[in-house]
């Protein structure tokens, strides 16, 4: 840091005398800032490879950065953490640089919407020299300055306090440093106050807030006590603790508590004491609203279980039993867990209508009767999965705690329907709200009634508004500067052409009533006019709108005026410059939000943005946040920092999610189904696997003797047979009975809008998108390869249990019987259901064997059924554990990546939002976007449906910068709906801010004139709204057709039904009546979209759905009343449902709901219910029913009249069946109208289509169809079709006579006689005469192949390869499983796919295929007393550097743990006493034995027979296997190899003499173990070195390939990430083979041109060369030994064939006479080389000898034969035992010899002789150890 501050620094900056008067700083004393940034050395950078920090965080960059927004600064600072650390650790910053760093850091700390990035930044800052040294030095120097100068540092002090405030809140361990700075700062401020009389208000307020934050943190870190729970509190009581200390998420104290929590009532009337009192009340009530159901439900459950051992129906929660975590799964929001569950009556639950486990619901899981538990929320509820008992949960706990839960743990789960996510954000918003943050506090908290004008108007006393758009309503408002995708501000205002009449509404001073024009000019009635005037002139506005009075219309009028005059409220109050603060519209429901925003875009062409739940509006999709994101991304208009960060996090999330989900799917499949034994082959021991397969083969053999046909059909799976479910598998494949045929499908029923759909749509937002698909193939390949290396292939499901249904219908005719009566067996339906049920129960059980039990099993077929299942579950647990370990590697990274992606996407949304003029949100979305709204600071907020929103949701939406709040709603309609009814009843939680302000006498406007309901309906509403007036338009409505009354109440006494699962109600009588009435109204000519059916109960919805098929009622809206608030329709049919003996009217007693239900209809309103019961129980209903009786619109039936016969007596419809008396909407009389065709209308009296313009006569046509007099066969109303009567006609093409339709041309008729054409193959064509001749003759013919095999095949398949099984023994010792054709007659065999099973150096079995032993990827088992190795076996181990622990009273090792010990073995007896009290017979310094010489004498005698002869014998117990040996004997045995001086010793761990288990851990023999492990590490290093060599060699040699091969090679190399030396070796060998083959091919092509005989053999050879080329170049990971041998043999054959061809040509040209044996041998050579069979050694020897003899003669005869082309291959180093050795000088080498390369007789490093023979290694002759 510089040595002085501003004053002293000014003198240093100016150079002296060298500037020559050219300006400031030109002399040598000043170095330019750019030079300072770029030239100054950085010690932390030099040699480290880091990017110099001055490039990213130098003076110039920070100067640009400090004026940007906080999120941009934070993203830039964290973009390169290494450079940021260097910048913070630089100690030589000057004063200006110090000030810049402080400013940027403080501004970055203001970005609360990037919490994870902020935490990363603070962690770097907290550990830096800048904070610990530079800043501390600054504070010390500040203390020494005069008090008068300290005020100059106010900005820096404010920045320091901002930084330390965030440090204390987010990095608690920085508290000590914070306290030190706080103490120094307090001293500085105290000195200023004493000398100067005080500090500035801004500095004092910030310091006070900082101290309060400190106190909060100290309290949070103090010991927690249960103060939260105490008796019900009164207003004057003080809370037991600060509500900001209470965690938002519930804790154990919240569930396991007996007392009531500390709660105070929401005040209906009167003021709160202060802001903290107000926030405390709201926070505690809202938190209790989601916790109370869980607490009460868990309490009920525990009491029920402890009382009678089983649960009953609980009031507050739903209980699920047998809950198990199946597997992890990834969602867009983070890592989830898929769980299985059961619950009472599971199969009876109607999941599509049930509120169970909907998205966002809170659940608690416990395995110990709720002593401890896990909280989670429902993350995904797929209907298909939940019907199987599967749901995805997102746990709210540390991942390590969840990982520690043992597999198979059984939980009980309790669920409450509370949507926790909304609670979380609102509660956090309440806690983060501080003094001064809540706008309009004087009204909301202190209940002042004198409302002031908006602050933006108060700052501009002369401000005027232009209200002309309210006059000219067809005028479009424009905002050219904020069109989608644009970022350039345009200050010019759009020009409008208003009417002359509208000018009277221009230049209005809205705060003065005298300036306002008449209401008629603005198209408003008086009450609407008052509401608009108040809304534009007051800062806190409440507008009540009774039904039909136009709340939305008035809201849009207000918004229109505000948008046109937005320059008034978008001016910055400090700079007086334009800034785009948006207008925020908040609605409770998605529908209301869409409706309001659609109204705005109907008059406003500007930047409108919609956020929130999923919109069903097609119009609003173009304005959604998702659409805006896509547009900006397409236009590349996203800020670079955001784009870069979002791209990186998205790709990381996608790759991790793909990988985890693939692995998780395998776990889920393994736990839910029965796997095939092939999947578990790597898990099952070799002994047990062989036992399983041999036992299965024996069963198959027995089945074949009983019934060969049945055995052939049986699916090949040994595990199914072993478990005893083979019969079920066989029958299950036969039975496919669809229940859907017997019942009506879901698609056939009318759509209903139920509460579940509405609530789910409300909860799910469009905040997360994933528009770009990354390539998942790489992730899939990576997962597959990693599991394949473990021996785990694809999941093969033997029985798909998850798709089974316990109640499958059983067809009696399908019982399975053997045809052989002596061996008859069958599975009856009941037995099959029992087997399926048992199968599912067995899979859900968690009882499994342990390793000890498994190791003792000899024959798995002799186990009981129970033990078989226990063993199977043991295998499955092991299988899942392996995959779980793979998932655990990525779990935490995925969580962090998801969080980072969500945060950066929110920053992208913020960038979009700050350029929008109007933003629309649901309350749920507003809660989620709180941090962003706080930073955006909208000045005007309009809340629609404000009376339905909880008060806490509204106030957390308000930002500090809000200056104008407009609440629109009606508290006499729907109110807020808390989860806990008692909180609404006893604590007024259902009191909205809207209603509370009205009750506290705050000025509000009530609209009075309704424009919706016809007068008869409005008359009912006047009981609730006495002053409600009717607009003249409602008097013009026409009467409803076909009924006697426009408004009618149908009274009945039919009893309701209770829906036990949904806890709802239904009424069959009402559903039937409504279905009949609705159909009748549709028949009157009304559109389905003019009719809405409402009910107050969701149970009735689905009752109605069953009665109303989609074919008739499609388009009719059917929903519950709550979802229809704010909407209307021409005709409303209302079902009241309730009718019971107890006179319980439920929801019908709530006046608000009744108000909504009765006010939705415009023209016709029909209600059905038990009105006598309602009148008895409720005063409001009594008043309504009395009015109905007075006006005669209530009765037991509705009178219908026929529009065609109005004078007839009508139909009295009392029951739903009565509507059938008007089947066509008229009456039962026949129509009898004569149609145009002369027929009579056959329909009953119908209202629609009276003129029969659309009626189609369906009687038979009487016209003649052709000239021959045939009668038309069609219908009367249809056009007469061509005559189709059959007559004989002669076909001109073939001459056959056929029956042809009368109207058809014979040329177009296809002859149906048999074709007589003889094909080229001399077989008769099997097609019809009129069809084209077949090109696939299917006559069976005998085919002989050159390999000697023959078979009958279809004629057209003559070119097929030989299908006979090869069965040759290949290089690995296994039989080839390819066909003769696939193996090219044995020349090129298919790769062997048998498991390798070699024992690797690490002692694990290799689970890969033959000839491929990659590095082992199982967890390394090397360990010491201090720690375990966390890597895989194939990776280099990290050496332990702890101090060696091998010590005893006699000796002590002084080396490190991984180094050879420097002490000898101790031979003294151990002095410890065993548990039995006798002295241990082990060796001093070794672990004590588990056996006693006295107590366990018999066992020790078996171990050491000389126990009596050698009474002082000591023993050693091996720690790996627990076997015990006499110490002298074991010492000799262990030292055997090390003391012998053999020329070579194998590299391997010593093994237990009894069980052959490797000895990895034993301090006595530690040096031997360490030496061996060191040798194994040397092997790993050699393999890595070999891989690098092969990679370089392959790339170098690839340049020698021909262009086509090089192109293919480059494509393969770039597509597949090569990571193993086997792959590199395979690539290089491919290249070498291809180079050799291209040389051979070139020679053949040259010889073909020269050949006089045409070179038939050469041409055939060229075709075979191409086949070999394709065989070599295919994508492969390795070459098997057999493949290598086959390719070399083929290359040798081609070389010999070329020599033969030259010899044959020479013979034709030469005059030399040869004896008869020459021709015989030449023909024999030709046969050996060209008959297609492999060139075996016997053939090769003969051909080579013959050609050698001729070759010796050629020089004398003029014949020139050249040597063939040869190939030298590279070898791979393998990892199995018997391959690696160590010479006597300690060098490690591999036995390796192939194709002429040997490492045999001498050591490759020291050249010492290691053997007199060449070691030749083949897998089939592996060295035994």
UniProtKB/TrEMBL annotation:
Residue intervals of the RZ-type domain: 1761-1825
Keyword field contains Nucleotide-binding: no
Compartments, record wording: Cytoplasm
PROSITE patterns in the cross-refs: SHKT, ZF_RZ
Biased composition (Basic residues): 11-25
PANTHER family: DNA2/NAM7 HELICASE FAMILY, NFX1-TYPE ZINC FINGER-CONTAINING PROTEIN 1
Name assigned to this protein: NFX1-type zinc finger-containing protein 1
């Amino acid at each position: 840091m510089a040595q002085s501050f501003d004053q002293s620094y000014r003198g240093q900056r100016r150079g002296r005398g060298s500037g020559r008067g050219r300006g400031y700083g030109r002399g040598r004393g000043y170095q330019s800032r750019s030079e300072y940034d770029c030239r100054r050395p950085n010690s932390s950078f030099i040699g480290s490879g880091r990017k110099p920090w001055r490039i990213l965080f130098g003076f110039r960059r920070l100067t640009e950065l400090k004026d940007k927004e906080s999120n941009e600064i934070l993203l830039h600072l964290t973009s390169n953490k290494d450079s940021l650390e260097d910048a913070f650790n630089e100690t030589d910053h000057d004063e200006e640089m110090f000030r810049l760093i402080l400013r940027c850091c403080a501004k970055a700390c203001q970005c609360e919407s990037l919490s994870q990035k902020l935490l990363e930044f603070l962690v770097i800052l907290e550990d830096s020299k800048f904070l610990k040294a530079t800043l501390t030095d600054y504070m010390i120097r500040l203390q020494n300055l005069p008090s008068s100068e300290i005020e100059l540092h106010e900005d820096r002090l404010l920045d320091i306090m901002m930084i330390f405030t965030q440090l204390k809140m987010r990095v608690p361990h920085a508290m000590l440093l914070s306290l030190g700075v706080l103490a120094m700062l307090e001293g500085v401020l105290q000195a200023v106050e004493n000398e100067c009389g005080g500090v500035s208000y801004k500095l004092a307020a910030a310091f006070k807030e900082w101290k309060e934050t400190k106190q909060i943190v100290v309290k949070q870190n103090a010991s927690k006590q249960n103060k939260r729970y105490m008796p019900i509190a009164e207003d004057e009581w003080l809370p037991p603790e600060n509500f900001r200390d209470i965690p938002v998420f519930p804790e154990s104290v919240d569930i396991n508590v007996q007392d009531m929590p500390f709660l105070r009532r929401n005040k209906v009337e009167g003021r709160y004491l202060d802001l903290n009192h107000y926030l405390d009340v709201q926070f505690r009530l809202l938190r209790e609203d989601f916790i109370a159901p869980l607490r009460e439900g868990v309490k009920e459950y525990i009491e029920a279980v402890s009382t009678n051992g089983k649960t009953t129906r609980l009031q507050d929660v739903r209980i699920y039993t047998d809950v198990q975590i199946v597997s992890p799964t990834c969602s867009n929001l983070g890592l989830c867990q898929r769980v299985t569950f059961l619950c009472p009556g599971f199969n009876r639950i109607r999941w599509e209508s049930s509120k169970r486990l909907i998205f966002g619901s809170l659940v608690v899981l416990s395995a110990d009767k709720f002593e401890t538990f896990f909280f989670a929320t429902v993350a995904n509820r797929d209907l298909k999965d939940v019907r199987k008992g599967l749901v995805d949960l997102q746990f709210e706990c540390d991942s390590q705690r969840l990982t520690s839960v043992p597999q198979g743990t059984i939980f009980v789960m309790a669920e409450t329907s509370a949507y926790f996510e909304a609670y979380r954000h609102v509660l956090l918003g309440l806690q983060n709200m501080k003094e001064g943050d809540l706008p309009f506090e004087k009204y909301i908290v202190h209940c002042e009634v004198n409302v002031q004008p908006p602050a933006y108007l108060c700052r501009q006393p002369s401000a005027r508004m232009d209200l002309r758009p309210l006059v000219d309503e067809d005028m479009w408002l424009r905002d050219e500067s904020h069109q989608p995708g644009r970022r350039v501000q345009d200050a010019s205002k759009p020009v409008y052409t208003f009417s002359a009449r509208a000018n009277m509404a221009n230049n209005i001073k809205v705060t003065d009533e005298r300036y306002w024009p008449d209401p008629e000019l603005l198209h408003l009635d008086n009450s609407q006019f008052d509401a608009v005037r108040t809304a534009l002139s007051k800062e806190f506005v409440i507008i009540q709108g009774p039904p039909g009075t136009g709340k939305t219309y008035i809201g849009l009028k207000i918004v229109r005026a505000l948008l046109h005059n937005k320059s008034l409220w978008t001016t910055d109050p400090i700079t007086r410059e334009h800034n785009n603060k948006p207008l925020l519209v908040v609605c409770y429901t998605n529908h209301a939000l869409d409706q309001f925003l659609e109204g705005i875009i109907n008059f406003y062409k500007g930047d409108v943005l919609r956020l929130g739940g999923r919109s069903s509006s097609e119009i609003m999709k173009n304005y959604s946040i998702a659409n805006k994101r896509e547009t900006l991304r397409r236009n590349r208009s996203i800020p670079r920092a955001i784009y870069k960060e979002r791209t990186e996090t998205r790709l990381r999330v996608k790759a991790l999610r793909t990988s985890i989900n693939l692995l998780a799917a395998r776990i889920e499949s393994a736990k839910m189904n029965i796997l095939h034994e092939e999947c578990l082959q790597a898990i099952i021991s070799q002994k047990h696997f062989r036992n399983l397969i041999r036992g299965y083969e024996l069963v198959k053999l027995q089945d074949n003797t009983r019934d060969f046909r049945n055995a052939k059909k049986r699916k090949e799976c040994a595990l199914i047979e072993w478990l005893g479910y083979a019969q079920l598998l066989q029958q299950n494949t036969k039975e496919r009975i669809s229940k859907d045929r017997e019942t009506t499908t879901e698609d056939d029923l009318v759509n209903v809008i139920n509460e579940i759909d509405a609530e789910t749509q409300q909860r799910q937002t469009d905040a997360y998108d994933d528009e770009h698909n990354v390539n998942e193939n790489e992730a899939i390949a990576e997962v597959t390869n990693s599991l394949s290396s473990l021996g785990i292939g694809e999941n093969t499901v033997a029985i798909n249990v998850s798709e089974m249904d316990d109640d499958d219908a059983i067809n009696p005719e399908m019982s399975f019987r053997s045809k052989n009566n002596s061996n008859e067996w069958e599975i009856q339906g009941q037995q099959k259901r029992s087997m399926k049920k048992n199968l599912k129960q067995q899979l859900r059980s968690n009882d499994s064997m342990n390793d000890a039990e498994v190791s003792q099993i000899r024959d798995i077929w002799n186990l009981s059924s129970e033990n078989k299942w226990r063993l199977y579950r043991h295998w499955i647990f092991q299988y899942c554990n392996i995959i779980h370990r793979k998932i655990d590697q990525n779990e935490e990274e995925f969580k962090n990546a998801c969080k980072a992606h969500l945060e950066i996407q929110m920053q992208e949304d913020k960038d979009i939002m700050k350029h929008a003029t109007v933003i629309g949100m649901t309350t749920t979305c507003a809660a989620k976007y709180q941090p962003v709204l706080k930073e955006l600071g909208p000045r005007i907020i309009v809340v629609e449906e404000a009376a339905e929103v909880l008060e806490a949701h509204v106030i957390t939406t308000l930002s500090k910068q809000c200056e104008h709040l407009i609440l629109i709603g009606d508290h006499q309609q729907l109110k807020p709906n808390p989860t806990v009814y008692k909180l609404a009843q006893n604590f007024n939680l259902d009191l909205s801010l809207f209603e509370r302000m009205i009750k506290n006498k705050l000025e509000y406007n009530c609209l009075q004139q309704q424009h919706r309901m016809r007068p008869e309906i409005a008359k009912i509403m006047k009981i609730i709204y006495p002053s409600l007036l009717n607009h003249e338009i409602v008097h013009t409505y026409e009467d409803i057709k076909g009924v006697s009354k426009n408004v009618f109440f149908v009274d009945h006494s039919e009893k309701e039904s209770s829906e036990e699962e949904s806890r709802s109600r239904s009424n069959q009588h009402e559903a039937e009546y409504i279905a009949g009435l609705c159909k009748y109204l549709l028949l009157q000519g009304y559109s389905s979209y003019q009719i809405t059916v409402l009910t107050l109960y969701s149970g009735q919805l689905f009752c109605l759905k069953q009665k109303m098929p989609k074919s008739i009622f499609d388009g009719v809206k059917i929903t519950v009343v709550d979802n229809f608030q704010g909407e209307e329709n021409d005709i409303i049919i209302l079902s009241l449902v309730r009718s019971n003996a107890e006179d319980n009217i439920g929801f019908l007693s709530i006046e608000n709901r009744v108000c909504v239900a009765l006010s939705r209809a415009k023209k016709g309103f029909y209600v059905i219910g038990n009105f006598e019961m309602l009148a008895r129980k409720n005063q409001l209903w009594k008043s309504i029913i009395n009015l109905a009786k007075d006006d005669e619109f209530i009765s037991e039936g509705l009178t219908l009249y026929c529009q065609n016969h109005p004078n007839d007596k009508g139909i009295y419809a009392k029951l739903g069946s009565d509507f059938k008396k008007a089947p066509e909407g008229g009456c039962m009389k026949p129509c009898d109208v004569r149609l145009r065709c002369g027929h009579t209308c056959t329909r009953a009296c119908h209202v629609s289509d009276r003129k029969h313009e659309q009626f189609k006569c369906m009687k038979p046509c009487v016209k003649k169809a052709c000239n021959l007099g045939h009668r038309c066969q069609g219908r009367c109303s249809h056009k007469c079709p061509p005559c189709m009567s059959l007559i004989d006609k002669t076909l001109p093409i073939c001459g056959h006579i056929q029956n042809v339709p009368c109207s058809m041309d014979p040329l177009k008729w296809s002859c149906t006689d048999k074709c007589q054409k003889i094909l080229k193959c001399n077989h008769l064509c099997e097609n019809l005469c009129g069809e084209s001749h077949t090109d696939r003759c299917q006559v069976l013919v005998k085919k002989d192949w050159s390999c000697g095999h023959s078979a009958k095949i279809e004629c057209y398949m003559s070119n097929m390869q030989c299908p006979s099984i090869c069965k040759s023994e290949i290089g690995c010792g296994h039989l080839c499983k390819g066909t003769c054709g696939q193996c090219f007659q044995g020349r090129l065999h298919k790769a062997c796919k048998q498991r390798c099973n070699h024992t690797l150096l690490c002692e694990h079995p290799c689970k890969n295929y033959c000839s491929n032993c990659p590095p082992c990827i199982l967890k390394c088992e090397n360990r010491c007393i201090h720690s375990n190795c966390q890597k895989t076996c194939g990776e280099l181990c990290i050496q332990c550097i702890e101090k060696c622990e091998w010590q005893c009273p006699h000796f002590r090792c002084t080396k490190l743990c991984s180094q050879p010990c420097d002490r000898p073995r101790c031979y003294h007896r151990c002095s410890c006493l065993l548990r039995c009290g006798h002295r241990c017979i082990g060796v001093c310094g070794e672990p004590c034995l588990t056996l006693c010489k006295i107590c366990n004498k018999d066992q020790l005698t078996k171990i050491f027979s000389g126990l009596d002869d050698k009474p002082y014998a000591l023993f050693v117990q091996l720690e790996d296997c627990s076997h015990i040996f006499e110490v002298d004997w074991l010492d000799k045995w262990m030292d055997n190899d090390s003391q012998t001086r053999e020329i070579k010793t194998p590299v391997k761990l010593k093994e237990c003499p009894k069980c052959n288990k490797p000895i990895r851990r034993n301090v006595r023999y530690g040096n031997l173990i360490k030496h061996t492990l060191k040798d194994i590490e040397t092997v790993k290093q050699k393999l890595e070195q070999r891989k690098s060599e092969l990679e370089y060699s392959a790339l170098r040699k690839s340049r020698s390939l021909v262009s086509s091969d090089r192109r293919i090679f480059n494509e393969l190399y770039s597509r597949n990430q090569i990571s193993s030396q086997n792959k590199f070796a395979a690539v290089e060998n491919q290249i070498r083979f291809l180079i050799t083959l291209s040389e051979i091919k070139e020679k053949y092509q040259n010889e073909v041109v020269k050949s006089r005989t045409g070179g038939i053999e050469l041409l055939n050879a060229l075709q075979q060369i191409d086949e070999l080329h394709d065989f070599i170049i295919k994508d492969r990971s390795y070459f098997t030994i057999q493949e290598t041998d086959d390719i070399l043999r083929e290359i040798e054959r081609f070389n010999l064939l070329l020599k033969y061809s030259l010899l044959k040509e020479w013979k034709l040209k030469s005059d030399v006479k040869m004896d008869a044996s020459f021709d015989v041998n030449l023909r024999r050579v030709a046969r050996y080389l060209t008959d297609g069979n492999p060139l075996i050694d016997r053939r090769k020897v003969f051909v080579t000898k013959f050609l050698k003899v001729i070759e010796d003669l050629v020089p004398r005869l003029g014949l020139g034969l050249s040597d063939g082309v040869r190939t030298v291959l590279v070898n791979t180093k393998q990892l199995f035992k018997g391959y690696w050795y160590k010479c006597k000088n300690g060098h490690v080498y591999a036995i390796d010899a192939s194709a002429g390369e040997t490492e045999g007789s001498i050591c490759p490093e020291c050249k010492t002789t290691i053997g007199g023979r060449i070691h030749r290694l083949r897998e089939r002759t592996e060295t035994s150890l």
